[in-house]
Amino acid sequence: MKYLKYSIALIILLFCTSCSKEESLPKEPIVDLGGERWVNGPLDKFIYQEFIKSYNIEIKYKWTPFEINYNRTLVPPQEKRVIPVLTAVRDIWMKPYEKVAGKGFLKRYSLSKFILVGSAEYQNNGTIILGTAEGGTKVVLYVVNDFELSNPDAVSQMLHTIHHEFAHILHQNIHYPQAWRGISTAWYTQTWFNTPEETANSQGFVSSYAKSAEQEDFVETIAYLLVEGQEKFDALVKANAPVEATFRLKESIVVQYYKEVFNIDFRALQREVRAAFLSLTKPTTK
């Protein structure tokens, strides 16, 4: 009891000491706590018209540390990159789904927010994060400052990330088929980053990252088929003939999943995504 009395007395003393200390409140508004004011420009009007009004999707491009991993060094997106990124997102992800699955599909399985980050998020193991999906509603897109519509590789990387994360949202709503389990279980590993891409391909994976977990294998396969297209997938399978059966089984499960669960013709979606990609990245002639 004596220890308890001393403890209470110490707490009271500390409380009184802290209360007696007077510090002036900051005059500048604290970021993301309601004090910011800015005039809406063409970028904000584009976001409102194409994303908020049409799909009720919030786009956060102004820097806010509370939406990202503050334990990592990250940089804000350059404003000049935002419309090109969002144009690609709209044309290569949203419009194909809307055309093939109907206008209500993205509203039913909708994201509520995109957070744009200028740089990649570097991990302690030497890998980088290009995108994350949280709670089935929010997607964080990284490396925005490296994005150029004239660079097909940059567009492919960004849209692969989008389709990858959206596929996560789909299977979080309705799980992928049990038939997927056991196909490549022996190859999954937390140290996937130690596997060269060619080795992963020879084991029946579209990428090294697909080896990280069963669900990552599933969504990586979807993203690869949609963004890279059937021709490139067929070439990948041909180059890895010993595991052709593995690739084809995964492909057939993806096609079946979209049809049976969402009534979506995956082949039609694949054609629309690929056509939009080629159209958007086509060099302009002067």
From TrEMBL:
Q: Which Pfam families match?
A: Peptidase_Mx1
Leader sequence segment = 1-21
> What keywords appear on the UniProt entry?
Signal
InterPro entries hit by this protein: LP_HExxH_w_TonB
Q: Which organism is it from?
A: Sphingobacterium cellulitidis
Q: What is this protein called?
A: Substrate import-associated zinc metallohydrolase lipoprotein
